[in-house]
Target: Chromate transporter
Amino acid sequence: MTKAREADRSGAAGRASLPEIFLAFLVIGATSFGGGVVAYLRNALVIGRGWLDEEQFLSALEIAQALPGLNATNMSVIVGDRLRGPPGAALAFIGMTAPGAALVMTLGVLYASNAENPYVNAGLIGVGAAAVGMLSAVTFQIGRKQLRRPVDLAIILVTVAMVSFFHISLVIVLLTVGPLAVLIYRPRRGGGAQPPE
Model:
């Protein structure tokens, strides 16, 4: 473990106890739905508790999205580890997944017995629309701080076009656009990992 990571963890650990980590992720897991969980995570971890700043949140989110599995559970492990090491990662993961697991099991049983009810189907459509709205809101909140150059927008547009319009497999998109983005943002001598102007 590097000294920078040790310093980061020790500073964060002073702000968060293990019960606080568990409770925070338990609440997020119990009150968030689908893709909208990113908005809950940002509000709870950056705005509400101040455990991460915007840059740290974006870094954790980028890693979580690159790893297999759900973004929310990946984020819980990453943030829990950053705050309190392996015990923090374990408690954050349990807190994040326990409410959803219990809720999905309960709703699965209820939906199986009410699948033909039009009110149930209308409610699910409403929940889906709300999740899309929340995800869009947090995308705009975070995106305006990240999209500073035309090359940023170009990478996004190419990715969206490949997936949405040309229906290219996500694996192929990641294997083509990903290395290109890494090449563009590679560290340069005497500066950070910034694309050319």
In short: Residues 66 and 174 are 9 Å apart (CA to CA). The chain has two domains: 3-145, 147-197.
